[in-house]
Amino acid sequence: MAEIFPSRRVRKTPFSAGVEAAGVKGYTVYNHMLLPTVFESVEFDAAHLKQHVQVWDVSCERQVSIKGPDALRLMKLISPRDMDRMADDQCYYVPAVDQNGGMLNDPVSIKLATDHYWLSLADGDLLQFALGIAISKGFDVDIVEPDVSPLGVQGPKADDLMARVFGDAVRDIRFFRYKRLAFQGQEFVVARSGWSKQGGFEIYVEGTENGMPLWDALFDAGQDLNVRAGCPNQVERVESGLLSYGSDMRRENTPIECGLGKFCNSPENYIGKSALEAQLRDGPDRMIRAVAIEGETGMCSDVWPMFADGKQVGQVASAIWSPEFQTTVAIGMVDRTHWDAGTVTEVETSNGMRRATVQKSFWR
Amino acid sequence: MAEIFPSRRVRKTPFSAGVEAAGVKGYTVYNHMLLPTVFESVEFDAAHLKQHVQVWDVSCERQVSIKGPDALRLMKLISPRDMDRMADDQCYYVPAVDQNGGMLNDPVSIKLATDHYWLSLADGDLLQFALGIAISKGFDVDIVEPDVSPLGVQGPKADDLMARVFGDAVRDIRFFRYKRLAFQGQEFVVARSGWSKQGGFEIYVEGTENGMPLWDALFDAGQDLNVRAGCPNQVERVESGLLSYGSDMRRENTPIECGLGKFCNSPENYIGKSALEAQLRDGPDRMIRAVAIEGETGMCSDVWPMFADGKQVGQVASAIWSPEFQTTVAIGMVDRTHWDAGTVTEVETSNGMRRATVQKSFWR
């Protein structure tokens, strides 16, 4: 592949100086912003993540700030999830859909106050959906993208590193809950969350100027913990079954197809409700499945069709060799007829047709 | 900069095989899709574009298809421009804004039928804005991203090349008008438009499978015209004053600040109308200006502040050395106090503070 070409439209982040000094080797673009994809190698980065602790520049998880008297009314239209059950310190995974149940994004919503929410976005300008609704309904809300850039701290030593910088209070933060914690006179939302299954936190850094001081503090404090710069890791996230909006799921998919039906429980008349309730009742025709593909296939950077008896029965949109599990791990969208665990299919990879077996669950 | 990392989320295009065979050296990402940025060098590409003809993969100008009985009602809410004056074969530049007049995108709208429009997007998911409005208003429209990928043919020899592939009818297409023209049993919208001032066309290629046959046909037909693969060129577009949404203008800007006030003439009650009419009446506090910066500064990949008497009076978001005009050409957003032609300021570039003079107009 060619090099990426910088511009104001493809923004650097508050942590870019640190990322570049750490020797980033690859980027992708996510919400009009640079997102590192590899430092040493994807395999090395994965192995390190599973043993130590990494600091991730995930600034590209841009926030949509929805603030004002009608903030909750708007959230109740956008969220298939019951917003009234959300605790004051909670982070809520919200698969937002259109009127037909087609996924538009899968942000994490953070309740800052009863009249103030952030939506921490996957790749896509959901801000414009919220804005279109709010303007049309005449809602009294401000909808902006604030100067907030999440920094991930992920890995088994994340609690230890974070405690050194933010104090032992971080150890008491429950999964998908947050506390406001102090750093050098600032106060940041610190949540136990992140796009790995190695444990860790996301710090919602307010103010670009606070980015590098925090980055440096984490590295200074973590030398003996073997802290490294990292990023969402393709090996670890596929093993873990963490879905990527835009790759594994898109507007042509419903949350139910993606295994997210449990998040569609709102009693409110949210957008897409009738479509999702019908599918919850009848069951979807296809669903996300873990798929093990034989041998090394190279990385999947497009869509690979899945076949059985010469007929297409699904597709794979993420796949990569797993050194830990000694197979190519993959995320497939598989038809009902072939989604049972143990079903053997074939996937047309970049390296030719390969035997592929549907798994009971992801690898962790 | 590091390499770009491919995934399904950062899509290849119907023309990617041709682009890669032509030796693309740089990419950016635009609407979740790869956009080439350089082939030989930006300077070489610019000089060639001004003399010959280039084929541009601008698939990333994704279309929002708005179709149905309420399509025009929706367009009239989104467009500051008078949709009733739009001819049946017209392409309409539409600076879409929020309720405060802040720009959300600046698509080209194409009228395919009285109940069917495409919006050919700048970088940003305006589809979600249109969808949020349509759902909230209960409009009877389908809003989708169709399998349509624009291919640009730009340069002084564009008419000759296009006539060889589509027939002499292309010569009669007026500026920002289109015809439906046949190619190998397909029919494509062919418009006289494109993101250069060297003249040319955009072919709205429907069907991914039709991409490479058309690409190949253009190269076969254009050998003696010295046809090359090209892309929107930073030198030529800054010289020409073609604004980039996300760089030169954003949601914090109004169309009037961007010199697009003449497109804000709709008699309908469109979104943002009162804010834009107030600014049209009172005049904006800052506006886009051509700025000549002394010497070579390197390419502007962020924002450079502009100063006079120690105070910030504007900023530059696009700048690059122009071999033709022997100056660094730049696009600035300049305060009213300093926007008159001939005003001398200083711009803080990557290469230090430089003398910068506001120009009467862009270089072409």
Short summary:
Two copies of one chain form a homodimer. Chain A is α+β, with helices and mostly antiparallel strands.
Features:
homodimer; 364 residues; Gyrase A, domain 2; Alpha-Beta Plaits; Elongation Factor Tu (Ef-tu), domain 3; 8 helices
Order of helices and strands of chain A: EHEEHEEHEEEEEHEEHEEEHEHHEEEEEE
CATH architectural group of the largest domain in chain A: 2-Layer Sandwich
Number of strands of chain A: 22
Which outline of chain A best applies? Answer: globular
- Biggest sheet of chain A: strands, sense, closure? 6 strands, mixed
Distance between the termini of chain A: 31 Å
Question: Helical percent range of chain A?
Answer: 10-25%
Chains forming the largest contact? A-B, 52 and 52 residues
Tally of DSSP helical segments of chain A: 8
Q: How many domains comprise the coordinates of chain A? A: 3
The CATH topology label of the largest domain in chain A is: Gyrase A, domain 2
Pfam families (chains A, B): GCV_T, GCV_T_C
Protein name (chains A, B): Dimethylsulfoniopropionate demethylase
